[in-house]
Design goal:
Elements (H helix, E strand, L loop, with lengths): L7 H10 L2 E5 L8 H11 L3 E5 L7 E2 L2 E2 L13 E4 L6 H9 L7 E4 L6 H9 L3 E3 L4 H9 L32
Parallel strand pairs: 1-2, 1-5, 5-6, 6-7
Antiparallel strand pairs: 3-4
Helix pairs in contact: 1-5, 3-4
C-alpha cells in the first residue's frame, strides 16, 4: 500500500466500517488536538476509549480512561495513535496481542512508522498514517467545506443531516 496518498474510497470505507476506537495518547487538556478529535468522534456516534496511563481510571468527556489497550472492556475496530512516531512500534505490538485484532491502525498527523505499519498489515490490519480521522471525515462528508475550507469534494448542495443524529452521511447505518 502507498502510504503517501490514500484513495478517498479507502478512507471512507474505514470510516464507514469502524464503530469502536481506542485513542492512544488521549488528553484531558481541552486545548490538545487529541481532545478535539475525541470530542468530534464522540459527536459523530463513534464509541471512543481514551488510552493514557497517566489518566487511567479518570474520565475524559465522560469516557473512562484506560492505561493500555489490554485493559479495554471490549474489542475495538480501530486504534488511533496520538503519540510520537517513536512510540508506534510499542503500540502496534500491544495491538497485535489483542483478540480479536483491530481492523485498522490510524496514525495521526505527523505520525508515521513504516516498519510497524508493515507488521500490522502483515497481520491483516489496514493502516493509515499521517492523517486525522476528524479532518478526513469532514472532508469526505463535505462538512468541512461549509466552513470555508476546500475539501476537494464537489457538491452544490449542503448535506442533509439525519434526524436526531449529527452525521453528514459518511457513516452508513
Amino acid at each position: 500500500m502507498n502510504h503517501d496518498a490514500y484513495d478517498n474510497a479507502y478512507i471512507a470505507g474505514i470510516l464507514n466500517s469502524v464503530k469502536t476506537i481506542a485513542m492512544v495518547g488521549a488528553s484531558a487538556n481541552d486545548v490538545r488536538p487529541s481532545y478535539f478529535v475525541l470530542k468530534y468522534l464522540l459527536a459523530k456516534g463513534f464509541s471512543v476509549f481514551p488510552i493514557n496511563p497517566g489518566q487511567a481510571g479518570k474520565e475524559i468527556l465522560g469516557r473512562t480512561v484506560y492505561a493500555r489497550l489490554a485493559d479495554l472492556p471490549e474489542p475495538v475496530d480501530m486504534v488511533d495513535i496520538f503519540r510520537a512516531s517513536a512510540a508506534v512500534p510499542g503500540v502496534i505490538d500491544e495491538g497485535l496481542r489483542l483478540d480479536p485484532l483491530p481492523k485498522v491502525v490510524w496514525m495521526q498527523l505527523g505520525v508515521r512508522h513504516d516498519e510497524a505499519a508493515a507488521r500490522a498489515e502483515a497481520a491483516g490490519i489496514k493502516v493509515v498514517m499521517n492523517r486525522c480521522p476528524k479532518i478526513e471525515y469532514g472532508k469526505l462528508s463535505g462538512e468541512i467545506g461549509w466552513t470555508g475550507v476546500n475539501s476537494g469534494v464537489l457538491s452544490s448542495k449542503k448535506p442533509l443531516m439525519r434526524p436526531g443524529f449529527q452525521s453528514f452521511g459518511v457513516r452508513q447505518k
